[in-house]
Amino acid sequence: MSEKEIAPKLEKLSAVKGMNDILPPESARWEYLEDKVRTLMSLYGYRNIRTPIVEPTALFVRGTGETTDIVEKEMYSFEDKLNGEALTLRPENTPGVVRAAIEHNLTYDGGKRLYYMGPMFRHERPQRGRYRQFYQLGAEALGFAGPEVDAELMLLVHQLFQSLGLRNVRVELNSLGVPSERQAHRAALLAYFSEHLDQLDAESQRRLQSNPLRILDTKNPALQSLVQGAPQLLQYLGDESLRHFDTVKTLLSGCGVQWSVNPRLVRGLDYYSHTVFEFVTAELGAQGTLCGGGRYDGLFRLLGGKPTPGVGWGMGLERVLELLKEQGQTPAAPVPDVYAVIPDAAALALAMQTIQALRAAGVAVQMHAGSGEGASSMKSQFKRADASGARYALVFGADELAQNAVTVKALRDGTATQRRESLADVAAWAATLQSGT
Ligand code: ATP
Ligand code: MG
User: From ligand 1's centre to the CA of 292, what distance in Å?
Assistant: First the structure.
């Protein structure tokens, strides 16, 4: 029998369309961003929450909304093979966070500030900045009714973008008021669009009955002038809603955040109220919304909880990283402090003990690992040492070890200087390796 018959070559498998592998060195950029996020969240007192990726489908039908793109056409839903439950891979995480808050009575002793980072799933047409598995960072403030938290949440985003060095990101705001105000506006919208029925596209005609507010965020260029002329929700807001909105604007300005009002910024769902906002860039084409959020005071009730105010945002991390790249903000890739060159397998035991002591002292050590066929040549080990980016090579040669020492060779400063260090002094030179002296 030929070898082919014994072991037929199997077909290669690929990742699912629109779902990406994030590989080194790219993954280091993700870690850089995630580190910034964690630091910032602790500065603002937001705590991490981790909810399941799979939730009951009903959570999103209710909590995201039946008339949204997400629920209408983007969800990965399936039936649990064992018990028939209707399940969905989370397309967003606000409903999950609110479900968890209700389930565990998180706001029993006052408001809670929470954040999450993780994968979301939407069946969309993959393109730059739009994927089927993508990562969202989100922050949610639960149990706070006042406008200062709306402002705080936006300041957080603003500071994150600043600390990343991002430029040219616009902040757009709008207010949706309260349900009764929206109702009056909805009636006016219905009348306006009904008058211009012939100008609406098929999707907008369908939405006219189900959710006319959604027509306002149509992406169809042919509808733009019609939409421009539509009645604005802002004109239907009462004093209290206007006051809430004014306070948000004043607080933002006071803290040096520039904003503009976009009357067409809407979330066509009844559980939203007051502030809605987006952080937008013109530098990422059609996928320019980096972050979107708003106040959702009606959501707790809709999900079976006690009435509790809530406000939050979600941010697409791929888009943030894309903009960082676009603007040339590339964080330095992490490199080891030290590359351990081990020319002779007989030195392995002592070398590894020393390396462990260095790592315990906080020195990043990359150890040469061979092919399993005896030690690699010094030349090839030094080549690897160079490629690793390490500042120093440690050479665990037979000569050195005979004297209970190791050679430290500078790789990056152009001097190629070498010095010997005694193994007994590992802790002392660990400190010098880290400080780079
Ligand atoms: P879009 O209008 O771009 O579809 P959206 O209104 O569906 O956005 P949200 O549900 O508000 O987006 O999600 C918050 C953020 O998550 C968006 O502003 C964007 O940065 C990011 N995002 C949404 N969908 C995707 C996706 N498919 N791929 C990558 N990022 C996404
Ligand atoms: Mg979308």
Answer: 8
Are 145 and 291 within one domain?
yes
Query: Span 36-57, mean pLDDT?
Result: 98
Domain containing 80 equals: 26-177+237-326
> Which of 20, 64, 71, 134 for a ligand 1 pocket mutation test, highest count of atoms within 8 Å of Cβ?
134
With respect to residue 192, please indicate whether it lies within any of the assigned structural domains.
no
Q: Name which of 84-88, 266-270, 355-359 the model is least confident about.
A: 266-270
- What size, in residues, is the chain? 437
- Closest residue by Cα to atom 12, ligand 1, is 292
User: Which among 154, 140, 156, 160 has a CA at the least distance from the CA of 36?
Assistant: 160
CATH (domain of 409): 3.40.50.800
Q: Supply the residue whose CA is at minimum distance from atom 10 of ligand 1.
A: 92
Q: What is the pLDDT of residue 194?
A: 92
Reported confidence tier of residue 180, pLDDT bands at 50, 70, 90: very high
- Ligand 1 mutation target, pool 73, 276, 289, most atoms within 8 A of CB: 289
pLDDT computed for residue 1 by the predictor: 52
- Whether 207 is covered by a domain: the verdict is no
Q: What is the mean pLDDT of the chain?
A: 93
CA of 265 to the centre of ligand 2 (A): 14
Laid out side by side, the sheet with 365-367 consists of: 365-367, 338-341, 392-395, 405-410, 418-422
Residue range 255-260: mean pLDDT, rounded:
98
